[in-house]
């Protein structure tokens, strides 16, 4: 029978990118409530301050631009200074420019691939050494319905999220022998800033809800259990997997 210690994060240090809003903010709040010391990373200092004010637990905020490729090592070092090297990395930051294939620009493509695919790898690489030394680590990437399905206006975003699915498997192959488990969550439709255009259209939101097996769109609390599982001892023998938290959207 499962015991509370399977899901206990006391003594763990977590780094969550995209912690200022949406799924990243929800993830950061949940990990803090579960006992982890959480460093939230995002561009907006004011939003990070609001997150810390509303969150129960030990937290710290790092306002940083993940779009600055040259600054990633500095960001990783700054995270480590706050509570020590992270045991858990949640790569929740991302961008979806929703450009049609014929309208995609080189700059838009590069920014999307950088934030959604490059940043998760190089942050994980920066923290993997300390996780190896401890013999324990958890990396959770954010995949998407578009990791496997093509949506209108999603060619760059879909390419990045398809890459996340394979990146997650490759991370597991490289680092799981050292005690570092790498998995990904693939959310369905949840109300966030990123999905604002979807939920601003009631007919579209309703159509997406009817596409699920459960019959509704996601609520942020629906991610708490799956994420806690992937970040805790409960998932000791789970790595290289993509868990779709989509109400059965991809099952139909």
UniProtKB/TrEMBL annotation:
GO terms for biological process: fatty acid elongation. GO terms for molecular function: oxidoreductase activity, acting on the CH-OH group of donors, NAD or NADP as acceptor. Pfam families: adh_short_C2 (PF13561). This is SDR family oxidoreductase. Belongs to the short-chain dehydrogenases/reductases (SDR) family. It comes from Oricola cellulosilytica.
């Amino acid at each position: 029978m499962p015991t509370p210690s399977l899901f206990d994060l006391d003594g763990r240090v977590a780094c969550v990118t995209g912690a200022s809003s949406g799924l990243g903010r929800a993830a950061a709040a949940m990990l803090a409530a579960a006992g982890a010391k959480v460093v939230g990373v995002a561009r907006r200092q004011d939003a990070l301050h609001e997150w810390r004010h509303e969150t129960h637990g030990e937290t710290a905020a790092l306002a940083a631009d993940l779009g600055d490729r040259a600054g990633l090592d500095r960001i990783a070092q700054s995270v480590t200074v706050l509570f020590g090297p992270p045991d858990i990395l949640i790569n929740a930051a991302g961008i979806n420019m929703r450009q049609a294939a014929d309208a995609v620009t080189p700059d838009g493509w590069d920014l999307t691939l950088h934030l959604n695919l490059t940043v998760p790898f190089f942050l994980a690489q920066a923290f993997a050494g300390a996780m190896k030394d401890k013999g324990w680590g958890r990396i959770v990437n954010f995949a998407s319905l578009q990791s496997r399905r093509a949506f209108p206006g999603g060619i760059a975003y879909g390419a990045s999220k398809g890459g996340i699915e394979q990146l997650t498997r490759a991370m597991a192959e490289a680092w799981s022998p050292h005690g570092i488990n790498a998995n990904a969550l693939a959310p369905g439709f949840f109300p966030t800033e990123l999905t604002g255009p979807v939920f601003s259209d009631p007919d579209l939101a309703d159509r997406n809800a009817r596409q699920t097996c459960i019959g509704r769109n996601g609520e942020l609390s629906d991610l708490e259990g799956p994420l806690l599982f992937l970040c805790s001892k409960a998932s000791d023998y789970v790595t290289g997997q993509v868990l779709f938290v989509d109400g059965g959207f991809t099952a139909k």
